Amino acid sequence: MPAPTRLRADACPGVFATHDAADGTLARIRLPGGALSSAQAFVLAAAAGELGDGTVHLTSRANLQLRAVRDADELVRRLSAAGLLPAPSHERVRNILGSPLSGLSGGLTDVRPLVTALDHALCAVPGLAHLPGRFLFALDDGRGDVAGEGADVCWQALPGGEGALLLDGADTGVRVPVEKAVPVLVELAEMFARVRGSAWRVKEIDPAPLVDAALRRGNRERPAALPRTGPAPVGRLAEDVVVAAPRFGELPAGILRSLGDVVVTPWRTLVLSRTPQGLVTDPADPGLGISACVGRPGCAKSRADVRADALAVLETGVRAHLAGCERRCGKPRGAHLDVVATGEGYLVDGTPVSTARLAEELKGRQ
């Protein structure tokens, strides 16, 4: 597949390269594997309250965002001191998913050490600093949760100490032992960088050179139907493992400050050691299926205050994503109702609906 012709440069925001949103400067903080220590959480909470809008925003890649940042230089200073910016040159490419429950509940292999090793190895290769900010790595502990998130390159643990190599979420048939998982993912990223042209993602290129590179470190078998479990469910999963959901992925600074060590998931939830106050932990909560982009006033492209409208439909019990425009930012994976603002109401899976009738329409789609 020929790489697409890009009319603009990759503009994924970071902390050094921020984004100018309608509500001010937006900074995105990469968290390899979603891991955030209590000390780092305290620093982020203080930064959100003193330099931003008072809220930490979760992303679909297990990263965090601060909005309306008033002093970007001070933010860099604070995050650097907290160890959240260990490699400034590679800041925007440290996009690494890891199974959030790994080492805590279930799974075949604890991938947390692999996430750390991959982060270090990635940052040690100067040429990989120029990977597109959208390029995504994943390390799945065998349960099949992050393997379904469409990572460009993914190692998924299998029984017996080896793992499957996935490209764009599809099993290549290449099997790589755990001790070679990190080297092979780095090598694939280097190969992608050499052959990508103007492509941003593996799905935009012929994957053959990457498969050939992987075979130098592994064996080839017939591609298999691997486990896929999807998001970690909200609620208490073990005595000291709780999955909690901030509404719309918005985490007030005061709550973050009280949580202790946290694992951020790519489903805008948090893995904690105790039940928190102010977050959703009831798996039967009907609003868990409702997500929304930031909408007005934070986004100049949005045609509606979608989060205010989303609050009015929380009790419908459906799975729906409300978007302020056709870009559908923050859209979840999997089946859901597509709700897009038009300026005169919404399109629900293409059907025009007034804002006043939106809850009624969604409830009728159950």
From TrEMBL:
Keywords carried by this UniProt record: 4Fe-4S, Heme, Iron, Iron-sulfur, Metal-binding, Oxidoreductase
Organism taxonomic ancestry: Bacteria, Bacillati, Actinomycetota, Actinomycetes, Pseudonocardiales
Highest taxon of the lineage: Bacteria
InterPro entries registered for this protein in UniProt: NIR_SIR_4Fe-4S, NiRdtase/SiRdtase_haem-b_fer, Nit/Sulf_reduc_fer-like_dom_sf, NO2/SO3_Rdtase_4Fe4S_sf
Protein name per the record: Precorrin-3B synthase
Domain Nitrite/Sulfite reductase ferredoxin-like residues, every copy: 23-74
Cleavable signal peptide: none
GO molecular function: 4 iron, 4 sulfur cluster binding; metal ion binding; oxidoreductase activity
Pfam families per record: NIR_SIR_ferr (PF03460)
